[in-house]
């Protein structure tokens, strides 16, 4: 029996096991001992420029500092500022807004959007589905909301999207439930940098429609946290055209985040966005997510919402902002490409990085590989299925040679 727990029985076992904080603690020790110059920190989830500083988009900073204090301290509406909601819908889709009804509700970062999707679109006790390489927070949110996270194998032998594994897992789950929420983190998936192709999406939607035709409620949350670091604005969003004209028992949602796209990680600003062919489904979406916001954090960061709207409404600022962000995107892409080219050259089997903050290398014993890498003063994150390298945080100069070191570490364990 529990003698020293005051927690409710359902809350007792909550523990965050964060591999990232462990890895970054080891890295800090090495920096103290050997100096930052000699150490490669591939554990960080934020963008670090080639001089080792936390990157900040200059136009974001300028506009943020120009905000009147009132815009920073006042409450905002629970659903979010109306102009912000219009702007995030535009930003989510760019030129690929599907025909249909759209709604948006402001959330505390993309994390808040994922929380709301699980809280409101996954039946308690049922499975939510995501790939076997996934951002660990999905699991925490599912547990918190009384759901279970199931996984399918993301890659096939050719390192393509494993539609067979995806289909098999959906088939298995749908034997036992009448609705399903799937979370797909694309483009530029964390932790692999993978993106679904148009054909992958066609296959996912065909299966979704098959179950919808049987009367099942099918929801997909597209986690687009890294979309602004995945390529050209409209090319990366072309797949969104496919979300037009779906049956009204299929709901497509997006988790929008200002963390990476605006370098505003700590300001906790995002949105959940939905598209449906049913106006009633969107009305309900706005009501229930507003309710869940009221019950969790009430309203969110008014200053950050105002900042986004101001940039969006000022053509010159927007053009400047997009150019600055594009430069950062290219910097990270270049670092990732260096790793991938070197991996290919030395015969290291890395997963297919297409863009974004992270790339991954499968490993049998990821912890041991990471420990071995410490000997070369390289610090990466051991995940269940492999080692995650942060292209967002390793400078271009330091990225050179990392692939060979990972291979060497793999061979040593
Ligand atoms: N989704 C993924 C896959 C992420 O890696 C992150 C951040 O690390 C987020 C969503 C959302 O981040 P935030 O809550 O800071 O917007």
Strand order of the largest sheet: 2-8-7-6-5-3-4
Number of helices: 15
Q: What's the architecture of the largest domain in CATH terms? A: 3-Layer(aba) Sandwich
Give the terminus-to-terminus CA distance: 41 Å
Q: Please tell me the overall pLDDT.
A: 97
In CATH, the homologous superfamily of the largest domain goes by the name Type I PLP-dependent aspartate aminotransferase-like (Major domain)
Helix content: 40-55%
The name CATH uses for the topology of the largest domain is: Aspartate Aminotransferase, domain 2
Which structural class best describes the helix and strand composition? alpha/beta
Which ligands are bound? pyridoxal-5'-phosphate
Rg, alpha carbons: 21 Å
Describe the structure.
- The structure is a single chain.
- The protein is α/β, with parallel strands linked by helices and 413 residues long.
- The chain folds into 2 domains: 19-57 and 319-412, Aspartate Aminotransferase, domain 1 (Alpha-Beta Complex), CATH 3.90.1150.10; 75-313, Aspartate Aminotransferase, domain 2.
- It is built from 15 helices and 12 strands.
- The chain has helices spanning 19-34, 58-66, 69-73, 82-93, 109-121, 137-144, 163-174, 198-213, 258-261, 279-296, 302-313, 315-346, 366-374, 396-399, 402-412, and strands spanning 40-41, 101-107, 127-131, 148-152, 179-185, 217-223, 250-257, 270-276, 358-362, 378-379, 381-382, 386-390.
- A 7-stranded mixed sheet has the order 2-8-7-6-5-3-4, with helices on both faces. The chain has a 3-stranded antiparallel sheet with strand order 9-12-11. Strands 1-10 form a two-stranded parallel ribbon.
- Strand 5, helix 8 and strand 6 (217-223) form a beta-alpha-beta unit.
- Helix 5 (109-121) packs across helix 10.
- The radius of gyration is 21 Å and the shape is globular.
- The two termini are 41 Å apart.
- The mean pLDDT is 97.
- Pyridoxal-5'-phosphate is lined by residues 45, 109-111, 135, 185, 190, 223, 225, 257, 259, 265, 270.
- Pyridoxal-5'-phosphate (PLP) is lined by residues 45, 109-111, 135, 185, 190, 223, 225, 257, 259, 265, 270.
């Amino acid at each position: 029996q529990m003698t020293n727990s005051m927690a409710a029985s359902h809350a007792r076992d909550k523990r965050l096991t964060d591999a990232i904080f462990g890895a970054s603690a080891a890295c800090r020790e090495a920096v103290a001992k050997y100096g930052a110059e000699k150490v490669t920190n591939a554990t960080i989830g934020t963008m670090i420029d080639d001089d080792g500083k936390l990157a900040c988009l200059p136009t974001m900073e300028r506009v943020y500092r120009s905000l009147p204090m009132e815009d920073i301290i006042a409450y905002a509406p629970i659903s979010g500022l109306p102009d912000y909601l219009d702007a995030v819908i535009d930003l989510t889709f760019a030129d690929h807004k599907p025909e249909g009804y759209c709604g948006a509700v402001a959330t505390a970062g993309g994390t808040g959007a994922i929380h709301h999707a699980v809280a409101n679109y996954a039946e308690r006790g049922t499975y939510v589905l995501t790939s076997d390489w996934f951002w660990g927070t999905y699991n925490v949110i599912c547990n918190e909301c009384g759901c279970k996270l199931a996984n399918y194998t993301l890659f096939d032998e050719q390192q393509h999207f494993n539609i067979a594994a995806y289909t098999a897992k959906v088939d298995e789950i749908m034997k036992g439930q009448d609705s399903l929420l799937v979370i797909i983190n694309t483009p530029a998936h964390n932790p692999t940098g993978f993106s679904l192709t148009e054909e992958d999406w066609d296959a996912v939607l065909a299966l979704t429609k098959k179950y919808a035709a049987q009367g099942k409620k099918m929801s997909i949350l597209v986690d687009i946290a890294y979309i602004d670091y995945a390529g050209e604005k409209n090319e990366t969003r072309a797949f969104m055209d496919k979300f037009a004209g779906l049956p009204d028992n299929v709901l497509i949602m997006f988790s929008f985040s200002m963390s990476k796209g605006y370098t505003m990680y700590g300001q906790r600003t995002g949105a959940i966005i939905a598209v449906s062919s049913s106006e009633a489904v969107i009305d309900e979406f706005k009501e229930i997510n507003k309710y869940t916001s009221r019950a969790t954090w009430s309203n969110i960061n008014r200053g950050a919402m105002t900042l986004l709207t101001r940039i969006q409404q000022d053509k010159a600022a927007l053009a400047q902002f997009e150019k600055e962000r594009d430069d950062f995107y290219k910097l990270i892409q270049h670092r990732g490409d260096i790793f991938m080219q070197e991996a290919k050259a030395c015969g290291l089997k890395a997963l297919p990085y297409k863009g974004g903050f992270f790339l991954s290398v499968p490993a049998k014993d990821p912890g041991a590989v990471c420990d071995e890498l410490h000997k070369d003063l390289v610090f990466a994150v051991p995940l269940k299925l492999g080692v995650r390298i942060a292209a967002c945080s390793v400078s271009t100069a330091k990225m050179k040679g990392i692939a060979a070191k990972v291979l060497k570490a793999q061979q040593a364990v």
